[in-house]
Amino acid sequence: MTSGIGSVGNGHSGGQGSGDGHVGGPADCETDREPDPSDSLRTWGAFQQALREHAGYSRAEFADLVRFSKHTVESVERGRRMPDAAFVQRADEVLGSTGALLKSSKYVTRGRGDVGLAAWFREWARLERVAVSLCTYECRLVPGLLQSEGYARALFENRLPLLTDERLEAQVEARLERQMALSERSTVLYHFIVEEAVFRRRLGGREVLLGQLDHVLKLTAPRHVTLQIMPTEAEFHACMDGPVQLLETAEGRRLAYSEGQENGRLISDRKEVRLLYQRYDTLRSQALTPQDSRGLLERLRGEL
């Protein structure tokens, strides 16, 4: 799903259809790849913050009352995160049930594209939200849909050129928000194949890796999410050409996505998509079983 460090796809990115079977690199994209939060997001967040402060609640107290994390409350108030319906409803109730937050939330927009998503990834991100199945092979880093907050933050802190604090937070928030699909869409089949070396790399340090391994074990426990690890010692490998993501829509349409540094490509050409599915299916048979993959993750965790 979720991998260039500078975007939120594999965390990555996404393009816009050009009608020729793919979305090419930067030439097909907006120049503003990671847009700032919209004015309406900032305004609504400031409005809610003012009401909270007038009511005498600290962020931590308010977070407990609305049953969201303090980090989420801060992100909403700073205009970095789109408030979802549950947040708005609970905030309105806690702050007097005036209806002001409910009514004003109808006019909140993200602005140009999805905040925190690189332009070339946005089309794929939209397709993810309506897919009935999603397959991801990754050899560079943990797929975006499986990243812990600490791991995602470490990725963006390593981004060159360096991101501003506001941009970094926006990208972390976008990645975590996109990840909510795993729990909210429990009838969608998610399948991941990840190289063993990815889970051995101590990006961010030992504690970050520990948290990441725990996070992956938790997210892949439900029956609609499957993880297979490609062992380093494997003698056969069907996807040596690099990472790939595949999805199928409710109408039976199959699409693929490939990403490199600072660009991404949405693939709709049937022959190319068919070939990528064949490679992925073969890799599936070459990787460790889901049960053995979980066992490997647990052993890796015990070694730390």
Chart the SSEs and their pairings:
Elements: H1 39-55, H2 59-66, H3 70-77, H4 85-94, H5 100-105, H6 122-128, E1 131-138, H7 149-157, H8 165-179, H9 181-184, E2 189-195, H10 206-219, E3 225-230, E4 244-249, E5 254-260, E6 263-267, H11 270-286, H12 290-303
User: What does the main sheet amount to?
Assistant: 6 strands, mixed
Separation of termini?
27 Å
Mean pLDDT: 84
What is the number of strand segments?
6
Count of DSSP H/I helices: 12
Would you kindly provide a brief summary of this structure?
With 304 residues, the chain is α/β, with parallel strands linked by helices.
Outline the structure in words.
This protein has 304 residues and is of the alpha/beta class. It is built from twelve helices and six strands. A six-stranded mixed sheet has the order 3-2-1-4-5-6, sandwiched between helices. Helix 7 crosses helix 10. The longest helix has 17 residues. The N terminus is likely disordered.
Question: Key terms for this structure?
Answer:
304 residues, alpha/beta, six-stranded mixed β-sheet, 12 helices, 6 strands, globular, disordered N terminus
